[in-house]
Amino acid sequence: MANGLVDPNWNPLLAGSFPSVQALAVASNGDVYIGGDFESVGGVLRNRLAKLSASGVLDSNWDPAAVDGISNARILALALAGDQLIVGGRFTFIGGQSRNRLAKLSTSGAGAADPAWNPSSLSSDVHALAFDGSQFVYLNQRFDGLQGVSRIAVAGSGAADANWNVLTDAAVSAMALGGNDSIYIGGSFTLVQSTARSGLARLGTASQAVLDPAWTPAVAGYVQTLLRVGSDLYVAGRFSSIAGESRTQLARVGLLGSGVVDPGWMPSALGGSVNVMARESSGRIIVGGEFTQINAQARSGLAVLDGASGAPSAATDVEQPVRSLAAMATLPDQSLLIGGRFSRIGGFHRQNLVRLLPGGSVDTAWGADVQGVAVPYLQPPGEPGGFDYVISVWKLLVDAAGRVYVGGTFEQVGGVSRRNLARIGTDGQLDLGWVADADGAVAAMAFDASEQLLVGGNFSTLAGQPRGSLAKLGTGAAATLDASWVPTLSLGALPSVLLPDGAGSVFLGGAFNVVNGENCCTGIAKLSATGAGLRDTSWNINLSGSQRSINALALDGAGNIYLAGNFSGLSQAGNSFVRQGLARALASGAGDIDPVWSPQQLAFGYASLALPGDGRIYVVSGIWFPGWVFALSTSGTGLWDQSWNVTSNGSLFQILAAGNTLYVGGSFTAIGGQPRQGIAAFPLDGLFGDGLEDRVQ
Fold first, then answer.
1. Is residue 380 part of a domain?
2. Beta carbons of 396 and 335 less than 8 angstroms apart
3. Residues 88 and 211 in one domain
């Protein structure tokens, strides 16, 4: 809105695995075209491209649906050309026609592609477009390993102008038409048409792309966006100087002469780059990006600058929430705890941890924010990457008294220092006397038969003592470390689940190979929950496949244990079993693998499971079907029960069965055909029985 406040009525919610808007175009009548990486708008399917009214209402007819047969389609650039919309990005089919990265769509009806306009020979994704208002659309492209700009006729078949090509030695990120037969380009290049130009250049558009020899403002860094206003060019990106003048991410450059930097307009953006710019009719310049300050004033990602002086106007910060739930647990009163990575839920500020009342509303009296500096953890063997940095709740556990144990990667709870493990009282306040202090991520927790806390994670010390990823703590007034229970895993191992069997043993699942110094166990082992934590050497199952880790375990009360994770097979006593991420074995003896129960219809990779005792096992897949909840029979071969079918438009990470309710948490905005953001509840014999609708942001 004009005063910088968020318009509460304009809210077309996007959804997808990682929804984002990467291109915008606004028509003279106020219609808004959005492109990017999303799958629905306002709960209605829209594949990467949509049309909204000025009030934010989705056009129910306009649906060109961009598709890429090789990888995920993505719309990266939009430009209006009269009553047509030029679309660039990564796609092979759009508006009912096969098109390679570039298309011209009607702005009316269904958004059909122009059947005659079909530019050919595009060798890379289109990241930037500029229409000259009459004849050509300019776009960035690659030519035999070089990068640059070409232009294509808007009329006819979309023929490329063979006489007009710009070659650069690195990316062109931005373009602005300058009038007087010129175009300005910005990026990370150092050569244009084989001539030295650092980040900025001006070229002719009359007939050939002749480089202007006089206009030479050099950029120390790179340019992300350009905006021409009259005889000035606003330049933004990530740089420290232009034309020898000190400028931090923002500058205004004259179009006359050699391109002199305006000495009177010098806002500085600190903390990150400036990626986009726009101009209000009043002359103010709106900038957006990854910065945290403008002229030493706090501005989080968005700022409005005076067009004459460059001074920032009043703050309008942009939150960057991550809709992701990773842990859930029920309290004795059937209220629900959820943890993960989020900053708001149900309209209330909650940092990564919240309690929901049985009806689904936020418990406003219970508030223990989990926050702090991100903590590094080493990725486990067989998993991609080295170190990762997140602030998140990974595991929640509730004791008989209603106290909550919180594990994950964090440094504070309720503003008090707590590293990665904490206990919260029944009043929602941090237990100040119970201090465990783990030096790495805590990913697994369980109570043994005496209500002591078993802990697993990517730590090397706990409660001030060395421990190799596993430990046992007291649950009394202090977090006293059990000095005798000392099983160890190798450096970099990550135990993700601990499951006591009630008979003195605990099953350990995760990503590891070495237990107690022995290279014996790939992904799963059975340990004594008492004494020194020795391994049960008679119970031996090993995972096989390109990735080998356990994400979830469950006991059925009939002597069986269910395994879910990332694997394509199991080995035992010299025998191999094909199992696609799910398996069942005996919990006792040698852990004999069930030779019959073998769900095979899905590719391997399961993130969580629930076993409520209704004859079905409920699983969410973490790799190939990230938005599905599957119900599989616990009898026979484990057939998929398709009468209980739930899908979402995002990713699912956790499920929890409590009574007749199945809670599902993840990163989504719609599930089972209903709008839900991040958390949903299902009756096990139907859908959405309790109306839980909390919006997790």
1. no
2. no
3. yes
Q: How far is CA 596 from CA 40, 577, 582, 599, 635, in A?
A: 40, 10, 12, 9, 9
- The DSSP-derived string for 307-342 is TTT--B-S---------EEEEEEE-TTS-EEEEEE-
Task: Give 68's Cβ-side CA count (13 Å radius).
Answer: 16
Q: What is the CATH number of the domain that holds 143?
A: 2.130.10.10
Judge whether 441 lies within some domain.
no
| Mean of pLDDT over the chain | 82
CA–CA distances in Å: residue 511 to residues 330, 378, 379, 587, 639: 27, 11, 9, 20, 28
- Lowest pLDDT segment from 14-18, 230-234, 668-672: 14-18
Q: Given this model, what pLDDT does residue 621 score?
A: 77
Residues 174 and 84 in one domain: yes
Residues 173 and 253 grouped into a single domain: no
Domain with 231 in it: 225-317
Q: Looking at the predicted structure, is the pLDDT value of residue 581 above 70?
A: yes
Q: Tell me the whole-structure pTM to 2 decimals.
A: 0.54
Amino acid sitting at position 679:
I
- Concatenating the DSSP letter of every residue in 213-247 gives SS----EEEEEEEEEEETTEEEEEEEEEEETTEE-
Q: What integer pLDDT is reported at residue 594 of this predicted model?
A: 95
Q: Using CA atoms, how far apart are residues 554 and 501, in angstroms rounded to an integer? A: 10
Tell which of 167, 200, 224 closes a domain. Answer: 224
Query: Percent of the chain beyond pLDDT 90?
Result: 40
Residue with tokens 């629905």: 40
In-domain check, residue 549: no
Q: Is the residue at 253 inside a domain?
A: yes
| Mean pLDDT (whole number) for 610-638 | 84
Phi-psi region of 467 (alpha: psi -120 to 50; beta: other; left: phi over 0): beta
The lowest-confidence range among 55-64, 180-189, 275-284 is 275-284
**pLDDT (0 to 100) of residue 630:** 86
Cα 307 from Cα 194, distance rounded (Å): 35
Is residue 476 within 8 Å of 457, Cβ to Cβ?
A: no
Query: Does the pLDDT value for residue 113 go beyond 90?
Result: yes
Question: Of the residues 317, 337, 366, which one is the last residue of a structural domain?
Answer: 317
Rounded Cα gap, residues 593 and 269, in angstroms: 60
Token pair, residue 485, equals 């229970």
Structural domain total, the chain: 2
